[in-house]
Design brief:
305 residues, mainly alpha, Serine Threonine Protein Phosphatase 5, Tetratricopeptide repeat, 18 helices, 77% helix, elongated
Length: 305
């Protein structure tokens, strides 16, 4: 029997016995599994009015609210689940994720610690705890948790990646480079690892290596605006004006609404083509939300033209 037939069969039972909570819960779960989120939630909400002591009920409601990006109600549902059943580790874990989403990092850490008290080898929980500390700029604690996540799973690319970012922030560039190389050994198409390697190379004056890593960044993520920006600055720095202009042109094909790229392009035309400069400045101003220079500067340059 396929899921459509199962749904019809359960609905037929409920039509005859609308108070059959067991059948309604079964219907809600199969609806949830097959993408009928609103319908599943409606059924679970109805059940909750009759049964307020079922922890799994609120746990599943939390999952559905998350699917709807309703993190406030997801939080309430998970909190109710752990209130009913303090040993519901899955609910604590998901509640921690919701707190993280809402930037309630200290509350999230408490939830994740509850999970680790139950299962100290849960690599995902070690990582997510580290992520909370990272978001709180507590890099010493974050490093400890990311390293433990890696000890439990050597192929956790995100733990390697965030650990590399910690080393950048703490000035340990050699360690950072090793972390990003570890990421690429596991996932050779991880564009942000190439980008961070390019930043290290750029800041250390390794122009050739920075160019290679930026090429790979844009190969795997042609919409990485920051990569276009730093590549442009690198090419201008080395005097390669033609390629610098080509990078901006290519960047604007992939990111056509970026004010900074239009502003950089206007700088390329300021000494040779005032019409092209004016056009680029006008488009930069139109996309002022993505400008890193004050819009007043653009207006001033337009007035001068």
């Amino acid at each position: 029997m396929n899921y459509q037939d199962k749904i019809k069969s359960l609905q037929a039972v409920l039509k005859q016995h609308p108070d059959d909570l067991k059948t309604r819960k079964a219907l809600a779960l199969i609806l949830s599994e097959n993408g009928f989120t609103q319908e599943a939630l409606a059924n679970l909400t109805l059940i909750s009015t009759y049964n307020e002591k079922d922890s799994s009920l609120y746990y599943n409601m939390g999952i559905l609210y998350e699917k709807l990006d309703d993190f406030d109600d997801a939080q309430k549902a998970y909190e109710k689940a752990v209130e009913i059943s303090p040993d519901n580790v899955d609910a604590f874990y998901n509640l921690g994720l919701v707190y993280t989403q809402k930037k309630l990092y200290k509350d999230a850490i408490k939830c994740f610690q509850h999970v680790l008290n139950s299962d100290n080898d849960d690599e995902n929980t070690w990582f997510n705890t580290g992520l909370c500390y990272f978001k709180m700029d507590d890099f010493e604690q974050a490093q400890e948790y990311f390293e433990q996540a890696i000890a439990l799973n050597q192929e956790d690319i995100y733990a390697h990646f965030y650990l590399g970012n910690i080393f950048i922030k703490t000035g340990k560039n050699i360690n950072a480079r090793q972390c990003f190389q570890n990421v690429l050994k596991i996932s050779p198409d991880y564009s942000w690892a190439y980008y961070n390697l390019a930043l290290l190379d750029y800041n250390e004056g390794n122009i050739q290596e920075a160019s290679k890593n930026l090429d790979n960044t844009l190969r795997y993520n042609p919409k990485d605006v920051e990569a276009y920006k730093i590549y442009y600055k690198l090419l201008r720095k080395t005097g390669n004006r033609k390629k610098a202009r080509d990078i901006l042109t290519f960047g604007l094909k992939s990111c056509p609404n970026n004010g900074d790229l239009f502003y950089y392009l206007s700088e390329e035309f300021k000494d040779e083509n005032k019409d092209r400069q004016k056009e680029a400045l006008t488009l930069a101003l139109k996309n002022y939300q993505t400008l890193s220079v004050p819009p007043e500067l653009i207006k001033q340059k337009l007035a001068e033209i």
